[in-house]
Amino acid sequence: MKVLAPASADMPPAQSHSLLAQGLWRASMVALALMPIGMAIAHRSSPAFVSLAALFALGAVMAEGSLGPFAARMRSALASPTGMAATAFIVWSLVSIAWSPFKGLSMSAFGEFVLPVVAVFVLGLTLPGRMSRGAFWLLVGACVLACVTMLIELKTGLALRRSLGMRWNSFIFNRPILTLLCLTPAVVAWLLRHVRYGWIASLAFAALVFTAMAHSESGASILGFAAGTATFLFALAAPCLGTRLAVIAFVLLTAAAPFLGTIADRVIPQSVHQTLANDHSRDRVDIWLSFGEVIRQQPVLGTGFGISPRMRDAAVADRIPSEDETLLGVGHPHNALIQIWVELGGIGALLALSVILLTLRVVARQERLVAAASLTLLAAATAVAMVGHGAWQGWWAASLGAAVVWILAARRTKLGKQS
């Protein structure tokens, strides 16, 4: 990257602003591209990277004097069917705080979720059309460095972190591993589309990411990688059918979420739970059963945004059978759709489903490779969200959003093939 010299006194203002804008655009790309290695060092840092990238992008827009066109694009995006559905979901999330028993907790969770969403929205409107080949190679390098760093750390028992007095629990790499999972479809799509013999580079990159996953404690990442790989291959072969199947799958998952614990309790044999004992599969089913009871108590409006960490202290817990009440204290349902039902009710679940279905409609209009990468991200993220962390964690929203921005950039054709 070039270092910009200070504008001289006799430099025309337009040229000075142009140089400033170019520097800010590069800074935005660098901030977004370095997110994987940042997450490997500080495992909740992705919101900081997307926010910094968004601030640089807004600064570049102002330096160019193009706030008017940016505002017009923003209004157009919000007025689209997908934009209106997403806005309705966020507004309903905010409204639900009115009946939350823990309003401070709800406001904190709302801020943690919405801030990276807003930052990603800004980046999605500004950065993809300007993304350079160098920025993509920097992203690839950051991902590779993150994988190698984590592998060395895990092989050495996190000796470096111990020596520096840092937190050295191996599970702290689960979040950066899941961030790499999110970014992989975009990297693979770009390598296949813009790099000579990109399929070799794609296989090598995916193999390295999977190796890091296999050495981590994130069983959810392995599940997501498997779901994403199957989806990518299927979507490349039959993109229209893949999109239709995704629509059916999301409708069924959303409708079944309140009953998922009961279904899993009856369908999954004990032998499977014994095999997956290290992944706590039986515990997850019990947690789903407990939070399913909460849904049955307040199925329409939900309990209020982001209160799952204190669900056991809420009044609704008093109406839950004692054997299920205990597991309401685990922090969250370990299933994003169940959490949406619990906290935002059937209305929130319907709005979330609307956002997903409208997104799939947009995906269906993309060219085959971009559509396959988009469906892969959806499949991998959904697989993780069905068994993993809380739905509103800022690092997850930032990682998913960054992946979307990179996919939007990867669909550009003018980058050309590498000679």
From TrEMBL:
Keywords for the protein's UniProt record, in alphabetical order: Ligase, Membrane, Transmembrane, Transmembrane helix
InterPro entries xref list: O-antigen_ligase-rel_domated, WaaL-like
GO molecular function, one term: ligase activity
Membrane topology: Multi-pass membrane protein
Predominant location category: membrane
Ranges annotated as spanning the membrane: 23-42, 48-72, 84-102, 108-127, 134-152, 172-192, 197-214, 220-238, 245-264, 336-357, 369-388, 394-410
Subcellular location: Membrane
Keyword Metal-binding belongs to the record: no
Record's protein name: O-antigen ligase family protein
